[in-house]
Amino acid sequence: MKLSKLTFLFLIHALSILGCKSSEKDKNEDSFTFIGRNAFTINVYNGLEYYRLNETQKFMDGYYVVGDKMSKWEEFEFKEGLLNGDYIVFHPNGEMFSHTKYSNGKKYGDELMYYPNGVLNSKKTYKNDVLVGNVYSYFDSGKVQSESKVVDGESVETLHYNLLGNIVAQRFIKDSRTITQRIVEGKIYSEMVSSNYDSYETIKFFNEDGSTKIYLQKEEINGTFYIIELDDNGDEILRVDVKANPDAAMKYFQYLK
Question: Cα angle vertex 154, ends 153, 155, to 5°?
């Protein structure tokens, strides 16, 4: 069968396009460097981690995959030795373990962690290496396990949930003290208060009606550890030297585990 000149030119053009696409695909597949786990060294300068190839001592630049013939462990992108772009770590089963975004050596964007089954484990967001927004953790079913509010790079309030979505614990900061409450069937079961600037620490347990069941303080003075029982106003009722009176202290240990 004879081909017209026009048909022949059309086929030549089509083949050239396919050839270009194939070359571009091959180039993309080869656009990373495959290295072993011990092929690089990390040095810290001015608070930033710089990566160098051991063989050449040059800063790593471009995209690298770390692994062997059986599996890969990491892949990451660099610009003149600094992480810049994706940093991905894998579970032994090949599923993604974590995916972090970097810009010039600093975390910038979402940091995602995953369970071995591929379900999201946690999510954090960074800007210039500082936490921003909220921090989330998840059950392997995909439901929210905890949610933390972040201010100035620090978590200031956290809610913990069970699989049914009910709050089972909460933590927040008030008057320079961190307060952690355990919730049972919608009621406060216990409350721990710890100072953010000294060793002050108390724990209070509540009855079903909300009244105080027991109120305790832990204190250490010159190497001696005391358990102090308090009244509702926080005044001392009884002080027990744990080492000198272990039997007297024993009844409090169930609350201080």
Answer: 130
Compute the distance between CA of residue 29 and CA of residue 90 in angstroms, rounded to an integer.
19
pLDDT at position 30, please?
59
What does the H/E/C string look like for 195-251? Answer: ECCCCCEEEEEECCCCCEEEEEEEEEECCEEEEEEECCCCCEEEEEECCCCHHHHHH
Burial readout 203-220 (b: 16 or more C-beta within 10 A, e: otherwise): bbbbeeeeeeebbbbbee
Q: Both 143 and 37 in a single domain? A: yes
Is the domain of 125 the same as that of 175? Answer: no
pLDDT, tens digit (0-9, with 9 covering 90-100), for 184-215: 999 999 999 999 888 899 999 999 999 999 99
Helix (H, G, I), strand (E, B) or coil at 37: coil
pTM: 0.75
How high is the pLDDT of residue 29?
52
* Low-confidence residues in the chain, pLDDT < 50: 1-27
Residues 147 and 170 in one domain: no
Amino acid identity, position 122: S
Q: Which amino acid is at 37?
A: R
CA 104 to chain centre: 21
In a domain, 25, yes or no: no
Task: Give pLDDT, residue 152.
Answer: 85
